From TrEMBL:
PROSITE patterns: FN3. Residues 316-416 form the Fibronectin type-III domain. InterPro entries: BG_Antigen-Binding_Lectin (IPR051941), FN3_dom (IPR003961), FN3_sf (IPR036116), Galactose-bd-like_sf (IPR008979), Ig-like_fold (IPR013783). This is Fibronectin type-III domain-containing protein. CDD domains: FN3. The keyword Signal applies. The keyword Acetylation does not apply. Residues 1-21 form the signal peptide. Keywords: Signal.
Length: 502
């Protein structure tokens, strides 16, 4: 179980790494180039900073991969030297009558060398074409600056002589008309035609020459052997560099491979390896140290806005405990909320909400969260006696003036007891004696008890004594008129005692 969990976690982390904005130098595997600068060209995966083959792998096979060439392999530093034209963008001259368009330029870099010209829908040869007497041309955009050494062209199985004479031009800018001569050929062409063309270039222009038959050419595959050409002059002095894969390290804020370009927006740091945190309004961070000049998005903290004040929550099984319930107060205890970002305890607090039956919740107490305890308590006063209450605790996160409730606890109910009756205030005592008798009576009149509303008073007991006596006597309870709970009716209640002796 634990092991499975670990594997799942690992996969999540890897996926996250690959989809993050920060640029990697070498892809991990040939299937996952993503935003990496260099593709991985190893059979069993690549070292992500050096590009070297790992797990005993070797350089992958290169395109075109046919029985004729017996499967080329990438070679050189990090397997980055080989056919750099494969799957790149190609264009070509098309004659005004439409010839050439059916056999698009891209077919010369599709990795397939089949020498049959094929048709509109199938085939693997490009066919640059022009008006009779003009030079057909074909251009590949290598996508970056490469150091190339030779060009190998797979000929058609018909009209082979069209590759007898041609020139190769090179150019470093998208202005495709400005090419400098790199190689020319003038020899009977066979199945495979090769030319030395040593150059640092971004584009390669194949151009037919030689009248009168220069208006068309069949290019079943154009292979350009080379590697990336990277200048080392902007690398930090302490880094090592070569022209194939560039600087091994760039100063913060600069991108590999050559440390000339600033980090892409949203990334920062050494080699632009870090993703910005959550800067306010989605603004990018400083490319050097990642700090957010505009401040953080809400609930994010620190200079780089990567610390998140997560939303606290209780499970519904987390219910507050109540203790020391009196007629007007209660002690409420609850556990620590879940999902609190550790180290940010001061950004959390609790509110105890209490409501009387039929009423609505009122916040009765605010308690700061702290990491010193996992048990919080609050003594709530001001309750009504003899009342049913519900209590719940709500966790909050706060930042500056902002605060937001998380998920509250479940609800606990309790009831306050009745209050003890007050000693009633005696309003009047009327003594009456019977003439000629030693008997008399006393009327004791007292005010209505204040504790009305709670029907828990069982009896009123009257104590009396002679002034000279030290012991109190009490009137038997069953002789005192019972107390009623209804305040509206009884402002004043008179209780008449019958007789007593003195
Ligand atoms: C060819 O290039 C396109 C875009 O440049 C890319 O999406 C595709 O994966 C490449 N195909 C291969 C087989 O490398
Ligand atoms: C081009 O590459 C070749 C072989 O990899 C190397 O000998 C040559 O010095 C490179 N040229 C430049 C200008 O870097
Ligand atoms: C390719 O080179 C040939 C000869 O150098 C030139 O005539 C042609 O215009 C070039 N193609 C482009 C698109 O510049
Ligand atoms: C090719 O070479 C032959 C003989 O050396 C020469 O006559 C011809 O002009 C050349 N053609 C081109 C296009 O250079
Ligand atoms: C913690 O809170 C964050 C949002 O603040 C949420 O995305 C995450 O799912 C929460 N985790 C748990 C375990 O509740």
């Amino acid at each position: 179980m634990t092991r499975w969990l670990l594997v799942a976690l690992l996969v999540t982390i890897l996926t996250y790494h690959n989809t993050s904005g920060a640029r990697c130098r070498f892809a991990r595997s040939s299937a996952s180039q993503g935003s990496c600068i260099f593709p991985c060209r190893c059979t069993n995966g690549c070292h992500t900073t050096t590009g070297q083959c790992i797990n005993g792998g070797q350089c992958t096979a290169d395109k075109p991969d046919t029985p004729t060439d017996l499967g080329w392999r990438w070679t050189g530093i990090a397997c980055q030297e080989g056919n750099v034209a494969y799957n790149k963008t190609a264009s070509q001259s098309i004659d005004p009558h439409g010839w050439g368009g059916d056999y698009p330029a891209g077919r010369a870099v599709d990795g397939a060398t089949n020498p049959a010209i094929g048709s509109k829908t199938s085939g693997s040869c490009a066919h640059p074409d022009t008006e009779y007497g003009q030079n057909a041309w074909w251009i590949v955009d290598l996508g970056a600056t490469f150091n190339i050494s030779r060009v190998i062209i797979y000929n058609r199985n018909e009209y082979k002589a069209r590759l007898n004479t041609f020139t190769l031009g090179v150019g470093g800018t998208p202005e495709k008309t400005k090419y400098t001569h790199c190689a020319s050929r003038n020899r009977t062409a066979g199945t495979i035609v090769e030319a030395q063309c040593r150059s640092i270039t971004h584009y390669l222009n194949f151009s037919r020459t030689g009248d009168p038959d220069s208006y068309a050419a069949g290019l079943c595959e154009v292979v350009v052997i080379g590697h990336r050409h990277i200048t080392c002059s902007n690398c930090p002095s302490t880094s090592t560099c070569n022209d194939v894969i560039g600087c091994d390290r760039c100063d913060p804020g600069k991108q590999q491979p050559d440390c000339t370009k600033d980090c892409e927006s949203g990334t920062y740091g050494k080699n632009c390896e870090e993703d910005c945190g959550h800067c306010k309004d989605g603004k990018p961070c400083d490319i050097t140290d990642g700090h957010c000049t505009t401040g953080c998005e809400k609930w994010y903290k620190s200079d780089i806005c990567k610390t998140y004040i997560s939303s606290p929550r209780f499970a519904s099984s987390d219910k507050p405990d109540v203790d020391r319930i009196s007629s007007s107060s209660v002690t409420v205890r609850w556990p620590s909320a879940r999902n609190i970002t550790s180290g940010l305890e001061t950004h959390y607090y609790y509110t105890v909400w209490i409501k009387a039956e039929g009423g609505s919740y009122k916040d009765m107490s605010k308690q700061p969260h702290t990491s010193n305890t996992d048990r919080f308590e609050s003594h709530i006063t001001g309750l009504q006696f003899n009342t049913h209450y519900s209590v719940k605790v709500e966790p909050y996160r706060q930042q500056n003036e902002l605060s937001e409730a998380g998920t509250s606890t479940g609800v606990t109910t309790f009831k306050t007891p009745c209050i003890a009756p007050d000693i009633p205030t005696i309003k009047n005592v009327v003594v009456s004696t019977q003439a000629g008798s030693n008997k008399g009576s006393i009327d004791v009149i007292w005010e209505e008890l204040k504790s009305s509303g709670c029907d828990n008073i069982e009896a009123v007991v009257i104590y009396y004594k002679r002034q000279s006596s030290t012991t109190w006597k009490k009137v038997p309870i069953n002789e005192v008129t019972g107390h009623k709970s209804d305040t509206a009716e009884c402002q004043l209640r008179r209780v008449r005692r019958e007789t007593y002796s003195h």
